Amino acid sequence: MMRFTADMRSQAKSLALVPTMGALHEGHLSLIRRAKQECNVAVVSIFVNPTQFGPTEDLARYPRSPEKDLALLESLDVEAVFAPCSREIYPPDCTTFVDPGHIATVFEGALRPGHFRGVATVVLKLFNIVSPDMAFFGQKDFQQTVVIRRLVEDLNFPVRIALCPIVREADGLAKSSRNVYLNAEDRKAALVISRSLKRAEEMTQAGEGNTEKLLEEMRKTFDAEPRAQLDYAAIVNPTTLEPVAQVMPGLVALVAARLGTVRLIDNLIFGPPGSTPEQRLQLALATQPIDLEFTALSPLGERVDRNRRFLQPGRAGPTPAEGEPASRRQYRLRPAGG
Ligand code: AMP
Fold it and tell me: Which of 262, 281, 300 is the last residue of a domain?
């Protein structure tokens, strides 16, 4: 894999990484299509990462469909698939892990201790192996995107993180590899998750801004569906994950619930009426209290981003050292015309 990526780099190709655990569905494919649009070469990793599963979780029975996955990836013209075995990623003598700190101890982290330590470790290892210019993650796992963005920022990793909106089934259930575990009744009952988020959205659009009232309504929606047990519902700042009292565009509602033994998560980014999922994601990213810097996609310099911002060379951030490759120069995300 490292030879392949070095070879691509020597040909000045931009490289995208899409980390997955396989059992690919339309949610994964949306990330891969976007990766193909934004970079010359797309690498998809398939690795069911043992360190992000707790001892009582579903590692052994996690759905696996390698042949179907490969056929799908071929049909999307993905340039490379990286599907290592466990011992390649975690040799028996390895002892080093990444601790993402406080952000990994709330919500999913509180219910799945060690989960984000496993996620951060495997993602950093994949970044080191593939050295991508960009890596693509789904909004579906919102807290994971926060952990990864922090990881890249805190450890100064030169990769640009792109987030893609949630892909849903026609009836609103967020696509997930774990949906196949649901029996017919629980599949129907699972709609309470997206329904509760939709309810909160409707209330904000009718003028309700108090998050406690929104959460009360979400909990009521769950109370009406006895097959579902709510693990948590919260409305938080999209960078710090701290609960907020008043709703605002860019804030995110997080939900986790169990249907029998199946745990599902979902979320909603609040936005102005009629705003697209992409626009909402950009609002959530813009809510960051810190000014992030990104490594440019290509050595070509200025590039119009989807949200009509520019990646502008040399306007801010450190001046690139003489002789430093252009692809490693720092660029700062700035509003158009700013
Ligand atoms: P997983 O294979 O579940 O680890 O997911 C791999 C990547 O696909 C992660 O970045 C997920 O957030 C993303 N993903 C999973 N489900 C969806 C979905 N329904 N919509 C968009 N992205 C998704």
Answer: 281
**Distance separating alpha carbons of residues 255 and 172, to the nearest angstrom:** 14
The SS3 of residue 89 is helix
Tokens read off for 202: 């409707």
The amino acid that residue 148 corresponds to is I
The secondary structure of 274-313 as a DSSP string is: T--HHHHHHHHHHT-SS--EEE-SSTT--EE-TTSEEEEE
The label of the residue with tokens 């996609």 reads 297
- Which of 31, 68, 177 for a ligand 1 pocket mutation test, highest count of atoms within 8 Å of Cβ? 31
| Helix intervals (H) in 19-65 | 26-38
Active site residues: 28
Give Cβ neighbours of residue 29 (< 8 Å, ≥ 6 apart): 72, 76
Residues 133 and 192 in one domain: no
Spell out where 152-286 has E strands: 160-164, 228-236, 252-259, 262-269
Contact 174, 166 (CB under 8 A): yes
Distance between CA 13 and CA 316 in Å, rounded?
25
DSSP 40: S
Atom of ligand 1 nearest to the CA of 22: 2
Sign of CA dihedral 138, 143, 149, 155: negative
> What single DSSP character describes residue 62?
S
Q: Which domain holds residue 69?
A: 2-164
Q: Are residues 21 and 80 in the same domain?
A: yes
Ligand 1 centroid, distance to 265 Cα (angstroms): 11
Using one digit for the tens of pLDDT, what is the confidence trace for 316-333? 333 334 443 333 333 333
pLDDT tens-digit map of 232-254: 999 999 999 999 999 999 999 99
Q: Which atom of ligand 1 is nearest to the CA of 23?
A: 2
The answer to whether residues 281 and 313 touch, using CB atoms and an 8 Å cutoff, is: no
> Within 13 Å, how many C-alpha atoms sit on residue 236's CB side?
17
